[in-house]
């Protein structure tokens, strides 16, 4: 029997777009993972099986705008727990808390409804990709402002050369990713 590598399988189905959105950037496109139902199931199952473990099982999944919504909602559904969106500023209709973070050129702000989580809730924070770590760090801070504990940050792809995963781990956040593009 041959062993199956989720990392290799997903990597083989991803698309790299050179020089997008700027010259020299190798854009890691996850949309092919979503388009193929078998690949999508392998990816979601990898997350779901991990978070079924009692020590990692969350009370709720929080997804980061916007591709974290796709993953997070399906993972939450499969785990039979709730899902909360962390949105870009101005998109949520109820009372919110907000967190601003720095981008390469400027800043951005994300928001969360004040009743999205309760103090003591164990939260899985999920997104498609970890680059500089700013969005996930802002999401972690928002959840903690409301008294929740982020049990882990999860993403399909880690781009470690951009330093985000190191920064997130240094903040005390445990991370889980399916594909690592170190040295690629």
UniProtKB/TrEMBL annotation:
Q: Which reaction does it catalyse?
A: AMP + diphosphate = 5-phospho-alpha-D-ribose 1-diphosphate + adenine
Q: What is its EC number?
A: 2.4.2.7
Q: What is its main location?
A: cytoplasm
* The Phosphoribosyltransferase domain, residue ranges: 33-161
**Annotated pathway, please?**
Purine metabolism; AMP biosynthesis via salvage pathway; AMP from adenine: step 1/1
Locations listed in the record: Cytoplasm
Q: Which domain of life is it from?
A: Bacteria
Keyword vocabulary terms for this entry: Cytoplasm, Glycosyltransferase, Purine salvage, Transferase
Matches recorded under InterPro entries: Ade_phspho_trans, PRTase-like, PRTase_dom, UPRTase/APRTase
Q: What class of enzyme is it?
A: transferase
Give any GO molecular function from the UniProt entry: adenine phosphoribosyltransferase activity
Q: Which HAMAP family match?
A: Aden_phosphoribosyltr (MF_00004)
**Family note:** Belongs to the purine/pyrimidine phosphoribosyltransferase family.
Please describe the quaternary structure of this protein.
Homodimer.
Query: Do you know which PANTHER family this protein is assigned to?
Result: ADENINE PHOSPHORIBOSYLTRANSFERASE
Job of this protein: Catalyzes a salvage reaction resulting in the formation of AMP, that is energically less costly than de novo synthesis.
The entry's protein name is Adenine phosphoribosyltransferase
The gene name on file is apt
């Amino acid at each position: 029997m041959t062993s199956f590598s989720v990392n290799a399988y997903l990597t083989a189905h991803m698309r790299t777009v050179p020089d997008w959105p700027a010259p020299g950037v190798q854009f890691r496109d996850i949309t092919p993972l979503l388009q193929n139902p078998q690949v999508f199931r392998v990816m979601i199952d990898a997350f779901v099986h991990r978070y079924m473990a009692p020590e990692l099982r969350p009370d709720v999944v929080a997804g980061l705008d916007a591709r974290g919504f796709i993953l997070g909602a399906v993972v939450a559904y499969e785990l039979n727990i709730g899902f909360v969106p962390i949105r870009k500023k101005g998109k949520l209709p109820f009372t919110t808390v907000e967190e601003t973070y720095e981008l390469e050129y400027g800043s951005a702000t994300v928001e969360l409804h004040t009743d999205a989580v309760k103090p003591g809730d164990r939260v899985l924070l999920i997104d498609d990709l970890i680059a500089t770590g700013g969005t996930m760090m802002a999401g972690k801070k928002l959840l903690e402002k409301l008294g929740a504990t982020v049990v882990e940050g999860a993403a399909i792809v880690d781009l470690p050369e951009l330093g985000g995963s190191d920064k997130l781990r240094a903040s005390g956040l445990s991370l889980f990713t399916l594909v690592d593009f170190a040295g690629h």
